[in-house]
Amino acid sequence: MHFNIIDVAEKAGVSIATVSRVINGSDKVRTETRELVMAVVEKLQYVPNPSARGLILKRTEAIGLLLPDLHGEFFSEIIRGADNAVQSQGYHLIVSSSHNDPKEIEAALRFMRGRVDALIVMSPRVDSEILLANLPKSLPVVLLNCRTSNPHFDTIMTDGFGGAKEMTNYLLDLGHKQIAVITGSQSNIESQERLRGYRTAFTIRGMVPNKSIEFEGNFTQMSGYESVKEIFKLKNIPTAIFAFNDSMAIGAIKAIREEGYKIPSDISVCGFDDTPMAKYISPSLTSVHVPIPELGEMAIKRVFDRLQKRTKGAAAHIFVPTSLSIRNSCKKIMDVDISKREEVFNK
Amino acid sequence: MHFNIIDVAEKAGVSIATVSRVINGSDKVRTETRELVMAVVEKLQYVPNPSARGLILKRTEAIGLLLPDLHGEFFSEIIRGADNAVQSQGYHLIVSSSHNDPKEIEAALRFMRGRVDALIVMSPRVDSEILLANLPKSLPVVLLNCRTSNPHFDTIMTDGFGGAKEMTNYLLDLGHKQIAVITGSQSNIESQERLRGYRTAFTIRGMVPNKSIEFEGNFTQMSGYESVKEIFKLKNIPTAIFAFNDSMAIGAIKAIREEGYKIPSDISVCGFDDTPMAKYISPSLTSVHVPIPELGEMAIKRVFDRLQKRTKGAAAHIFVPTSLSIRNSCKKIMDVDISKREEVFNK
DNA sequence: GGAAATAATGTAAACGTTTACATTTCTGGT
DNA sequence: ACCAGAAATGTAAACGTTTACATTATTTCC
User: Which of A266, A335, B50, B281 could bond A114 through an S-S bridge, CB–CB 3.0 to 4.6 Å?
Assistant: First the structure.
């Protein structure tokens, strides 16, 4: 039961061209007629049909945001940052999430084609390289934390390597030597980067990271919890646990306490991402700070730059630095403590 | 640089009608020609233009989801449930969030018009009644936790009243009498419902709720934290604190500990929503369980029923019950304890 | 007052589909 | 071999806009 431009034109006694001009604000149309038309528009509650508009204009005023399965606060913070940024430009966000395997992403991508003016893709799986290869090159695309050898796309990457290295260094400086990690899924490139950073921190000091205390999680609280249960089967309990996101750190903390250990006095724990939650749990969580909403915001900004041709030329590769948010979940190790549990795993 | 149906038709040596028929799977077209066409489609990577399609078909295969500002895990869980449900039907979700004031919602609504086949609206502000009144009645709309006197729309409401009442009862049964609440924004109808439930639990027992220990938060961790700081300025510290969502409960816990009190032995704390986080923090949080992803799922199901005309007739008003997830953050009050702090505020 | 310039408005094509209806091509029965 | 009927394919209108270009109305200037 919607009116179209013809209805408006008839009721106002003008041509559809005039109505169109009024609607689009542009051009010179007599104030008198403009007001007349606007009155009719108002009365009829006329809203231009976006399909018809999109068909001829070839733009939709929407930006597509492709996310993997969303757990925890991370992705909603991304959405928040992105949505705020698009709205300031009168654009809108089309979010498609909850797909991890390339097949689903492809379906989502097909859906997006023609419905959005630009695309922000977050596909952290290693095997999505192929997929990323044949992303539509007809629209601006920004890759968020994706690995690709294709230099054609703008990318934004957080420094997972540097962040993990810094955190590991921090723990080493506190005197920890047996630092277990709980990683994300093996096929997740962010997790890979963080693992690389973790290991590098050791090797830089001439130590060798102990691969037997690297546990694979999947970024959920439960996987953090379960990994710790595994950790406690070890002969020598590590003195610190580095979870590769905050959710797993929280799961880890629960498990550690169930085993009767205190944090940080018995075991230090830290996370990654520094989600809003981190500073509120107890002990407040030491974490690698990632500017999450800003990530979404930056991606949107980039996309608008492309859209408005402010930025032409080669793809940009933005590297977002991380920092340490040091709180109360990690503690300098007591020599006494170590002696009870230390194992000679480094020279 | 995209091909259209005409390109495909030409390359395949058939008419566009035939191509269309092949694309849409329907109708009788010779297997031979079908394969021929499909081959061309494949080669040209042809994807039908959704605008053109939407224009003539008047459907978009997208469902709009309108959310308020998203904080914490609640809304991302809603999205998760909804997205999973739409994907199983080959549909997609257009999420628009981060707007609280009616003006913004209206803009989002205008944007949605013509872009979606149905709408799910979550607008928990009291003053959005007007807005809800002139929601498009040309499409199926499901209202999620919205108050409206308009019986025209399908609604899904969680039983905030019942949940809060039950939780308050539980606390009263544990012997608590001074139960502070930290509410959401005053203008939030869910918060109002919960408050009503809280008060009712008292009055049912012939007690009168102490309004001076009702604190207004805004569903963020920080507001929970700050409310507790206020609470500790009181002469008589309540023995229990009931936060109207889990995020605020977490903020509250932090503040309580900073004041040197233990949970639950000194003060009991409970939340609302039972987000995934709740069972992992420590002490694990007693909370009113709300089936969050299921809420999104139900809304989508309802919308599809309408879309496929399986459900005609009057609007349905679904009432989603809540339940108590009892964990370790609340404790039976010791008589000794109360005596130290009790105030005669009920008969 | 009237030509020239300018401003306002109108006309019609185009965007890329779907589908009712028209046409062509097959099939099988005589 | 031919025809009826069925099956496959094609033609063209329709969906609701925008906009180049054409037309008409208004102003400006002598």
Answer: B50
